[in-house]
Design a protein that fits this description.
Elements (H helix, E strand, L loop, with lengths): L5 E3 L8 E3 L7 H4 L11 H7 L12 H14 L3 H14 L1 H10 L1 H8 L3 H7 L1 H4 L6 E4 L6 H6 L8 E5 L16 H14 L6 E7 L5 H5 L13 H19 L4 E4 L4 H11 L5 E3 H21 L8 E4 L3 H18 L3 H4 L3 E5 L2 E2 L25 H8 L3 E4 L9 H10 L4 E4 L11 H7 L5 E4 L6 E3 L2 E3 L2 E2 L6 H11 L7 H12 L3 H5 L10 H18 L12 H7 L11 H5 L3
Helix pairs in contact: 4-5, 5-6, 5-10, 10-20, 14-15, 14-21, 17-18, 20-23, 21-23, 23-24
The structure holds 1,4-dihydronicotinamide adenine dinucleotide (NAI).
């Protein structure tokens, strides 16, 4: 009698348990985690029963990679590039991640900002196949059942959005799914986290976007967002269900929530679950990394900078708080003292204690004693900042006059135009370098091409959270942390700044090339691991003797595996 043995594909692919007898040859072509396309060897084709299902040619992974790069470059429309990349992922996972990891500067702007913004705006039209989990307001009281429908049982990182504030594009409801999907693609490509450990989620509570509610192609719940009580109940149920299925050490990254909910939820869950908010804390990490690196050019210590934020939302608060934390630790001062040189402007003008418009409680520490003022140029002339950080979603707000004024006040003005997508950036790299006669220290949220001013070519650094969150996530997972203190983002910022070479700085870049991010992620994870064990926050024991070697042993490998391992490891 033939004995049917079960084997676990998870030993090197995913955690889906299959019976060898049920897994047919064709599944190796249809399952994206197993498919290699024309890279199946003749022996594999014979043994797996797929001979004849493919044309005779054999292609190396390198040849496939080159062909894909050629296609991406050949396709003109960004949205078509996004569709191509998504289809590649659905077809051949390792090839997709190979491309993303090895051609990050070409692929990242497609799966992440700026093109992902466009993809979310057109999500209903380009929707082809399920990706991620939609937990809707109609699932109240049975969220756990929905979570159990996800086929993977070893999820360790969840990126979740409720779609209320997608990039700088506003409420896109369920169409925000592109964001968690894109972020998790980067977790794998740049942080080495296995794809089956990643789960993108949209909490679909409806949308207040009237045009989406009327759009026949809208894929989400066609309702307005619910009152806070109902909303909170769903989020709460979701958080508990995640822990129930996947454990307390499952990292939950909040992404692109509306401002009010982003703060509330972070405050509520920070010490209860393993959570962070990337828009607040991840942005802070990358911006502070840029500030740390800029010190090597301006020769000013962090507390010696006068920093003016244009925009006082989630991103601004996160950055300001991390700057303050760094100053507090470095200079052993109170938060009030650390906040002394940090100023903010919002839609009503300068945040000051005397103004009639309200100032949110968490921002009061940055609302100094000063007369109320409006108009960025006037405020710059009055305060004379040496650093200006744009997080307002107001494209071109840093006018030539503002940039010229900053360059008049400072020898090396620091200008960060962080708003996404590209058209929302407060200024372009060309504007910043041209109007400051090439003297500014510039960074942006969306990518800009190199700029030549006065015969010198600058490579503008993209102050992208993608330098930070993959390494933080990796560090949290390998340490088995249950909570995420702000210190992790300071560690990540410091590690990132230290990875910037003199050559990068000379070229005007405050960040290393994107191709360095996988290496940087391991370094960040190692430093986080050290912090976690030293401060008793790690739960992964035994403690690895050599942390870097241990982390590297955990990383996803986009190189094709030998599918015949099944045959030799699991005899039928
Ligand atoms: P938010 O909506 O919470 O905050 C926007 C702020 O800008 C508010 O304080 C608002 O009052 C202010 N503002 C709006 N119009 C203004 C005007 N005309 N004059 C002065 N202030 C004005 O948004 P959030 O989350 O802070 O994000 C802001 C931008 O930063 C977005 O474009 C987002 O994409 C970008 N961002 C970039 C990241 C990066 O990696 N570079 C990461 C996170 C956010």
């Amino acid at each position: 009698m033939k004995i049917i043995r079960h084997f676990t594909v998870s030993s090197y692919h995913s955690s889906v348990e299959v019976s060898r007898n049920l897994y047919r040859g064709i599944d190796f072509l249809n399952d994206r985690s197993l498919n290699k396309g024309l890279s199946f060897s003749l022996e594999e084709r014979q043994e797996l029963g797929i001979l004849g299902l493919l044309p005779a040619a054999y292609r190396t992974a390198e040849l496939q990679e080159q062909l894909c790069v050629n296609w991406v470059q050949h396709i003109k429309e960004p949205i078509q590039k996004y569709i191509y990349a998504t289809e590649l992922w659905n077809r051949n996972e390792r090839l997709f991640f190979r491309l993303l990891a090895r051609h990050t500067s070409i692929m990242m702007p497609i799966v992440y900002t700026p093109t992902v913004g466009l993809a979310c705006q057109h999500y209903g039209e380009i929707y082809r196949k399920h990706q991620g989990l939609f937990v809707t307001i109609n699932d109240k009281d049975h969220v756990l059942n929905v979570i159990y429908n996800w086929p993977e049982s070893h999820v360790k990182v969840i990126v979740v959005t409720d779609g209320e504030r997608i990039l700088g594009l506003g409420d896109l409801g369920a169409h925000g799914m592109g964001i968690p999907v894109g972020k998790l693609a980067l977790y794998t490509a740049l942080g080495g986290i296995q794809p089956y450990k990643c789960l993108p989620v949209v909490l679909d509570v409806g949308t207040n976007n009237e045009s989406l509610l009327k759009d026949p192609y809208y894929v989400g719940v066609r309702k307005k967002r619910p009152p806070m009580e109902q909303y909170d109940a769903l989020v709460d149920e979701f958080m508990k269900a995640v822990v129930k299925r996947y454990g307390q050490d499952t990292l939950i990254q909040f992404e692109d929530f509306g401002n009010a909910n982003a703060f509330r939820l972070l405050k509520k869950y920070k010490d209860v679950f393993c959570v962070f908010n990337d828009d607040i804390q991840g942005t802070a990490g990358i911006a502070v990394a840029g500030l740390f690196a800029s010190q090597r050019i301006t020769q000013k210590k962090l507390h010696e900078n006068k920093i003016l934020f244009f925009g006082a939302g989630g991103a601004a608060m996160g950055i300001a708080d991390l700057v303050a934390l760094s100053i507090m630790k470095e200079n052993k001062v109170s938060k009030e003292e650390a906040a002394k040189n940090i100023w903010m402007i919002d839609i009503h003008g300068l945040l000051v204690s005397q103004r009639k418009e309200p100032v949110d409680d968490h921002l009061k520490v940055y609302a100094h004693d000063h007369k109320p003022m409006k108009g960025l140029l006037e405020i710059v002339k009055e305060l004379k900042p040496n650093t200006i950080i744009g997080v307002s979603t107001v494209g071109k707000a840093f006018t030539p006059e503002v940039i010229k004024e900053l360059a008049t006040i400072n020898d090396r003005p620091v200008i960060f135009a962080l708003s996404n997508p590209t058209e929302k950036a407060e200024c372009t790299a060309t504007d910043a370098y041209t109007h400051s006669e090439g003297r500014c220290v510039f960074s942006s949220g969306s990518p800009f091409d190199p700029v030549t001013v006065h015969g010198k070519t600058f490579r503008p650094g993209q102050g992208n959270n993608a330098y930070i969150f993959p390494g933080v996530g990796l560090g949290v997972i390998v340490s088995g942390m249950h909570h995420i203190p702000d210190d992790l983002f300071l560690i990540a910022a410091q590690t990132t700044a230290e990875s910037v070479s003199e050559k990068d700085l000379n070229e005007g870049a405050l960040y290393p090339p994107l191709s360095e991010v996988p290496k940087l992620s391991v370094e960040i994870a190692k430093n986080i691991m050290e912090f976690a064990y030293n401060s008793d926050l790690a739960t992964a024991y035994p403690k690895p003797a050599d942390k870097t070697t241990y982390i590297k042993s955990q990383l996803y490998d986009y190189c094709y595996q030998n599918n015949l391992a099944h045959k030799y490891n699991y005899p039928s």
